[in-house]
Write a structure and sequence with these properties.
heterodimer, A: Rna Polymerase Sigma Factor, Chain: A, Arc Repressor Mutant, subunit A, 2 domains, B: mainly alpha, flat
Chain lengths: 192, 190
């Protein structure tokens, strides 16, 4: 109990150093700090596939166990771990796109989207809108509004200038706002 | 739109906290950098509220507890392997260090014995192995002839001999010379 509370005060970077030395307690502390948020991120990014998200989380922490030296000590740990998670998702998106191309399936999400959106509840509509976002936009959006990271952290994770992150977030919010409010107007018309 | 000049965080905070109607004139001016109308501002505001609500409703559960146990097991296995290799390396290093120490001690003892045998019959002989021959330069140039043009002034008209000079020339013939001429002509007077 004493060790646990002591480790809770340690910064992530110090915990990584201890994990490199084989400290199980430090690993548990780091896992507790990040497993939920990373699980959330992976689940949202990987089409709400929980099993896949868990596999990705497992692989990510395995990387920390096997190659703790991969972590660049000059970077902030939270930024580094999200950038690794982001790269894993990027690879998965690329793999999926190649698979779809090989199977001859053309993704045309916008085809029936408007019709589908009209019939959905606000909550479902948001789910659908998030699902249809491009991989990069989805990452930025989730990191900002669900994980509540700063603009500077997001720019380091996705390797994008801060200005670009800001403008992308603004246009994403704007388009989301219009999509949702159009929906509200349709609902009002129907109720009348 | 210059993004760098705008504080996006401040804008988001305002949208989250205040409806457009309650904004101060300065705040209205500030948000006008981002939105063009009150309606746009309110759309963004209400969508933000919906988004927060959506995230609350659609919460993602944490990973399975078994995952943490599996990972801890992996960590233990990796460090057990590393510690085994670490021990093996330490033992190997110890053996090689001992071997090096023995080798050094042997070499040092050997050096001591060889030094004793060589100092006993030591004799120093000095030999001149190089002779230097001094040479002198056989030609020394002391003078150097320098040819130089001298200006010579040419005068117009020949120089006239003065009467005194001509008289002097007559005076210059002595009797001894006359006598000598006579003697040379006659050649038989004595």
């Amino acid at each position: 109990m004493f060790f646990k509370s002591k480790l809770a005060r340690f910064p992530d970077e110090e915990l990584m150093r201890k994990i490199h030395q084989g400290s199980e307690a430090a690993f548990t502390e780091l896992y507790t700090r990040y497993s939920n948020s990373l699980m959330r991120y992976f689940t949202r990014m990987l089409w709400n596939n929980r099993a896949m998200a868990e596999d990705f989380l497992h692989d990510l922490f395995l990387k920390i166990i096997h190659n703790p030296l991969q972590f660049d000590a000059n970077r902030k740990f939270s930024t580094w771990i999200y950038s690794v998670a982001n790269n894993m998702c990027k690879n998965e998106y690329r793999k999926r796109q190649n698979q779809l191309r090989m199977d001859g399936v053309v993704e045309n999400q916008s085809r029936d989207l408007d019709k589908e959106l009209d019939l959905m509840s606000a909550s479902d509509k948001l789910t659908m809108l998030l699902e249809t976002l491009e991989e990069e936009d989805k990452t930025i959006f989730l990191l900002r509004y669900e994980e509540e990271l700063s603009i500077s952290q997001i720019s380091q994770i996705v390797f994008m200038p801060e200005g670009t992150v800001k403008s992308r977030l603004f246009y994403l919010r704007k388009s989301l706002a219009f999509e949702l409010n159009e929906f509200k107007m349709i609902l009002n018309e129907k109720s009348i | 739109m210059k993004e760098s000049e705008m504080d996006f965080d401040a804008f988001e905070k305002l949208v989250q906290q205040k409806p457009y109607a309650t904004l101060s004139p300065a705040e209205v001016e500030f948000v006008s950098q981002w939105v063009t109308s009150e309606q746009e501002y309110e759309y963004i505001r209400s969508s933000g509220e919906k988004l927060t609500q959506w995230f609350r409703i659609n919460q993602v559960l944490g990973p399975d507890d078994q995952l943490q146990k599996r990972l801890q097991k992996q960590l233990r296995a990796v460090h057990k392997r590393e510690s085994f290799f670490g021990k093996a390396i330490k033992v190997g290093a110890g053996y090689s260090l001992t071997a090096i120490l023995f080798a050094l001690a042997g070499w040092w003892l050997g050096q001591l014995r060889s030094n004793e045998s060589t100092t006993r019959g030591l004799q120093t002989v000095y030999l001149k192995d190089t002779v230097f021959v001094k040479t002198k330069p056989d030609t020394v140039f002391l003078d150097k002839i320098i040819y130089r043009d001298r200006p010579f002034v040419l005068t117009v008209g020949a120089k006239k001999e003065s009467e005194e000079d001509s008289k002097g020339a007559v005076k210059g013939v002595s009797m001894k010379e006359k006598e000598l001429d006579d003697l040379l002509v006659s050649g038989s007077e004595r």
